[in-house]
Amino acid sequence: MKVTVCELHDSGTRFDEDWQRLARHVRAERSELVLLPETPFSRWPWDEAVAAHQQAEARLRQLAPAVVLGTRPLDSGNERYLGFLWTAAAGTRTVHARSRLPHAWETVWYQHTANADFSPVTVAGITVGFLIGDELSAVQETERCRREGIQLLVSPRSTPVKAGVHELCSTRAGAGPGWILGPAGEVLVRTSPSSPVVSLTLDLSADAGPSPAGPATAGR
User: Does the model's pTM come out above 0.70?
Assistant: First the structure.
């Protein structure tokens, strides 16, 4: 599977430039899966973030036919911070409700009471696990990824985790690099300000690392 991670600024002309670069890279590399940073289309406050994502969601079609994963703010009771999966055929669907809010500033916008649900999703025949923010610090959940046969762990943020499976991480520009990790926690490829979009072909059938036929590629 050809996967792509990235760094994106979160507003203004810099975001527009970053997005166009990402779209060109995804088309050129024929990426099959793209991971976006945490709430890629918006900053806080909450109401503005919800509106910004709704307005910008049409941009996802520029990444087709790749499957796109990310997080979005959504007014849905207290389950308002959600992981999503987007395909050109089916549009956007929720795949994960964030269950951990360790920071006081995050509760300014809402009181979170989502039930923990770490059920994997299937993407192009690959079993994918989704952890958002400090959910990565829940050791039992990363261990469960391994036990349940998850082949790919995706995380829209910039904190490493050794989960025994391949991991993708995309970040906001300035928040550190995005990366693709191997099952032992080794860095296979990472983004940088000079190469903010990178792709790698992974053999996810046997945790074999990058395919010999699929070297890392970077977009500028």
Answer: yes
Contacts of 16 (CB under 8 A, 6+ apart): none
**19 and 7 Cβ atoms separated by less than 8 Å:** no
By DSSP bridging, strand 179-181 and strand 187-190 are antiparallel
DSSP annotation of 134:
G
Closest listed residue to residue 171, CA positions, set 15, 38, 4: 38
Q: Find tokens 């979009």 and name the residue.
A: 197
Give the tens place of pLDDT for each residue, 7-53: 998 777 899 999 999 999 999 999 999 999 888 887 766 677 788 88
61-87 residues labelled b (16+ CB within 10 A) or e (exposed) = eebeebbbbbbbbbeeeebbbbbbbbb
What span, in angstroms and rounded, lies between the C-alpha atoms of 38 and 129? 16
Q: Which domain holds residue 128?
A: 2-219
User: CA–CA separation, 195 vs 124, rounded Å?
Assistant: 27
Contact (CB, 8 A) for 7 and 193: yes
Asked if 87 and 66 touch (Cβ cutoff 8 Å), the reply is no
Q: In a 3-state reduction of DSSP, which class is residue 140?
A: helix
Q: What CATH number does residue 103 fall under?
A: 3.60.110.10
Sheet (strand 179-181) strand order: 121-123, 126-130, 152-155, 166-169, 179-181, 187-190
Domain count, the chain: 1
